[in-house]
Structures are given as structure tokens and as C-alpha cells.
Amino acid sequence: MIQTEREQELLTAGKALEASLVAVRRELHRHPELSLKEARTAALVAERLTELGLPVQTNVGGYGVVAELAGGRPGPTVALRADMDALPIEEETGLPFASEHPGVMHACGHDAHTAMLLGAAELLTARRDELAGTVRFLFQAAEEVNAGAKGMIADGALEGVSEIYGLHNLPTLAAGKVATRYGSLMGSVDRIELTLEGKGGHGAIPDQSIDPVVSASAIVMALQTAASREISPFDPVVVTIGSLRAGEANNVIPHRAELTGTVRTFSPRVQAGMKERLERIVTETAAAYRCHADFRYIEQNPVLVSHDLCVQHVEETADRLLGAENRVEAAPTMAGEDFAVYLTQIPGAFFWLGSGPEENAEQAYGLHHPKFDVNETCLPTGASLLAAIAASRLEALGGRN
Ligand code: NI
């Protein structure tokens, strides 16, 4: 009961921050920065955290910012993470605070995530005496290019951390709701690149050439059998060739073809076998057509697998804070999220926070859409929820020591 009362108070205090969180989010929205270029955003974040009196570390894993709040009571460390980067998209929302940077837009709501985590830091700082341990705030750069989490880990951001939590807004879920899921939530992301060398020549004399276009065509078709013939239909896999370039003229057999693609899976076991599988299909199909294949398989993101105990903790906290009627089961998605990398190192959980309109949210513009927007009432909700997750988890972990 006492816990519930304290959390309800956190919700009220979060609500009182709404205007300032909206202002921060709009300021960031006006000035979106691409991955690996988040200097201005990082400076704003560092300034706000310094104002709260927290020790701040900058340039962690690129432009990442880390702050630490030591509670009034001893205990372990729990991390909360937000991402800060924007996308190369031309904004079409027409909002008064729309992007002032042509071709760059916060179309994934990382501006909202950053504002929420700043809000959580403010809420927890005001209650530091009650905290049974330390909360580390990770403001991560370069999520969209799958580089930021790895960089932060390399720079020691997880050292001494027991568990990590994070959220992503979801415009097709009404603000005020959360969506959780045990186990895999988001897919792995790997990139493939393929260069096929043949022998160019006259389009009318194919017998004196080695045609990489025919070889490439066969490979694109053969790759589909990796999913359909080699993997259980109960294990989802996507192999998409997104670009195929070869030749300039209609009557010339080109020397070379270049292909790139993306590979998604929903289980670490399946992901682990994809490189061998695709490489075999590519090189042997190429050989059948007398081409030489140079195949590169680049692992970008693991499957995002939350830890059961941590999911349970998020669900229980969300139910106390927002009511069980506002929690739904998340649908799995093959979209990637580099929070997955943290979860390969330490336990934690990732969940969706509704950021859509209260009515007909499922019709809202999705993530990465030029007209994407968030319902800003989700900002205080996210701030309070993140704060409550960290505070109550420290209590539970400390209680176990
Ligand atoms: Ni995102």
C-alpha cells in the first residue's frame, strides 16, 4: 500500500512537470540531429542534468551523456536509458515546432524519450533520500545506426549496473497505455552486401561473357529458400534484398552486380545460423553461374530479449501506476532497437509506451513517417513510470541482499 501511495505521488509530481517536459521535447524537436552528430542535444541534456546537481559524464560512446544519482540509502545500481538521435527524413507535420533542419526529423520520437528521461531524473533527484541505491541515466547517441549502445558499453556505461530499463513510444497505442512482452520483443538486424564479378561483353554474344545479372537474379530467388526451406515455419525470418545494381545499357552484359539486403530474425539461435546459411547459398549459386561472389555479412543488432523477472517488474509497476486495464500485450516486431545490445550484457526489460491519440490510435502515423507526432501527454507518464521502475526495483533488489 505504501509503495502504491508513493508511486501515485510520483505520477502527480510527473504531471506537474508536463509543461517543462513539453518545452524540452519541442526544443529538441526543432533542432533534430542525425546519428553521430548529436552535439547540441547532448549539450542540452548535460546542462539540465548539471542543473539537477548530478555528476555528468559527456562523450560516452560518441555524444552519449551519463549521469548518476546516488540515493540516500545503500544498494545496487539500476540504469535507465533514452536515445537522442533523429532521422534523415523531411518533416511534413506542419507543427509550429517542426524541424528547422531540412531533411532531418525526430520521426521516431527520440526527442520525447530524452525529455522523459530528464523528467525521471528530476523526479528521482527530488526523492533521492528514499532511494535504496543508485540510478544511472544513460542518454544514448546513434541508436538509428546501431552504434550508440555498443559505444556506451565500450566506454564503461554498464559497469556496476545490475539491471537496465528502457522504453520506446508507440504512436499506434493510445497515450496512457503500455505494451509489454516476455522474451523476444524486437528482431535482430543484420546487413548483407554482395558483389558479383562476371565478365562483361556484348549483349548479343552471351557465350563470350559471364553474366552477373542472371547470377544475381538466381541468387535473389535462392535466398528466399533460406527462410522457406531451411528454418522452421515457427521461427520468423526475413531476408530482403533492398538494392540491386548492375549495368547501364540495354545491350551490354555488365562486368559486375552489387546487392545489399537486410536479415531479420526473432531468435538468437536462428540469427546465429544465418551467416553460414546465406553465404553458402550465395557462393554456390554464384559458382553455378560461373560468377565470383564477394559476400559480406555484417551483424548489427541482436534480437531484443527482455528478462522475465524484469518484464514482470515493469508490468507490476505499470499496473500500480496506470492501472492493469491500461496494459496490453505487445505484438512482436521485426524492427530493430539497439537496446538489445545492453540486454546481452545484463538483465533488463524494454517496453512500449503509448504515444498516440486517445481515440483511434491505430490509425495514427507510424514511427519513421514524415507526419509522425507524439501525444505529449505521454511525456509525464513516461517520466513517472521510468522513475517508479527504478525506485521500486532498487527497493526489491536491495531487499534481496
Ligand atoms: Ni526509435
Concise structural overview:
This protein is α/β, with parallel strands linked by helices and about 400 residues long. The protein has helices spanning about 1-15, 20-30, 40-50, 110-125, 150-155, 210-230, 270-290, 310-320, 340-345, 380-400, and strands at about 55-60, 65-70, 75-85, 130-140, 165-175, 180, 185, 190-195, 200, 235-245, 250-255, 255-265, 290-300, 305, 325-330, 350-355.
Q: Would you give an account of this structure?
A:
The protein has helices at 2-16, 18-30, 39-51, 110-125, 148-154, 212-230, 268-288, 308-322, 339-343, 378-400; strands spanning 56-60, 64-70, 73-83, 132-140, 163-174, 178-180, 184-186, 189-197, 201-202, 237-246, 252-253, 256-265, 292-301, 304-305, 327-329, 348-356. It is built from 10 helices and 16 strands. The longest helix has 23 residues, at 378-400. It has 2 domains: 5-187 and 303-400, Aminopeptidase, CATH 3.40.630.10; 189-298, Alpha-Beta Plaits. The protein is α/β, with parallel strands linked by helices. The mean pLDDT is 96. Helix 2 packs antiparallel against helix 4, helix 6 (212-230) packs antiparallel against helix 7 and helix 8 (308-322) crosses helix 10. Bound molecules: nickel (II) ion. Nickel (II) ion is lined by residues 108, 110, 168.
Q: Hetero groups bound?
A: nickel (II) ion
Write the CATH fold name of the largest domain. Answer: Aminopeptidase
Number of helices: 10
Q: Provide the domain count.
A: 2
Instruction: State the strand order across the main sheet.
Output: 1-2-4-3-5-16-6-15
Largest sheet entry: 8 strands, mixed
Q: In one word, what is the shape? A: elongated
Distance between the termini: 23 Å
* CA radius of gyration: 24 Å
The helix/strand order is HHHEEEHEHEEEEEHEEEHEEHEHEH
Strand content: 25-35%
What's the CATH architecture of the largest domain?
A: 3-Layer(aba) Sandwich
Total number of beta strands: 16
